[in-house]
Write the structure tokens for this entry.
Amino acid sequence: MPEHHTLEPIDPPTAVEMYLQEREPEVSEATLKAHRYRLNHLIRWCEAVEEIDNLNNLTGRKLHHYRLWRREDGDLSNVTVKTQMDTVRVFIRFCERIDAVRPNLSESVVSPSLSDGENQRETILTSEAATEILNRLERFEYASFNHTLLILLWRTGMRLGAARGLDIQDYDAPRMRLKLQHRPEHDTPLKNGRDGERLIALRPDTCEVLSDWVEHRRRDVTDEYGRDPLFTTAQGRASRTTIRETVYRLTRPCEYTGECPHGREIESCEAMNTRRKAASKCPSSVSPHDVRRGSITHFLSRDVPEKVVSDRMNVGQQVLSKHYDQRTEEQKVEQRRGYLNNI
């Protein structure tokens, strides 16, 4: 190919380090670590399987072989393969810019399509994405509706309806906790009724955001029952639709990274349209329930006992394991190893 003559030789480890150095000022440490982990598999494949020491020689067919190899090598689900290949695509796009690979090679990076069942079962807000989104919100939208809502959903794992039903009086700043109450007569029920009522402990930095929201940013309005909602809009208590669409919008990758992992033109993408429900059309945006599922997985990954997570999130342990815990078998066995090594 004529374009090949313009390429500059570079080995895979060097290219990956250049990519990570470029991303370091833009993303969180957790995201950077996740990208390093995923791209280390590509380096391993280049060196041990294909004996590629110059990325100039990478082709679309070889990237196809890599996807098949990675699925087999890691015994990965479609969702995990998609996550890994999306990172590879962004990396290859960077390599195109530095003349390390042939032009438009990123278009050859194919991620598996997910069925509706796979999306429903395994889509979560990852801890890496949550950290990156919250870092951006803290920097540019501190104690705003967006920032306060997402930090509360992520840190507590509460359901959309529980967050919507909170009043200012339910927030006990001195004791750093929230009280969830079942109030169906005022249109703010909890999913599990009275059994869903509970106290939730908060981190000090979460309380700082909540207090600043209440004192400086919250609209001072009441709802139709004369209550003082924690989350308000000009119309009163925030609706379920407002909360849901806010989460979809905030979790679009282009919103917090400035890049699209799906190769779309951001300006013309249908998910960027201002009309209602447009943000949910982004393949990577997630719902409030996906934030809850990701939060639960995050707590479990940090070795928080299942009983503690079950009580805090108001979900039975069997349901938690079956429908919410998205840790891979590899993650689980390594966590168990940590306990066994101390015996």
Summary: The CA atoms of residues 55 and 118 lie 33 Å apart.
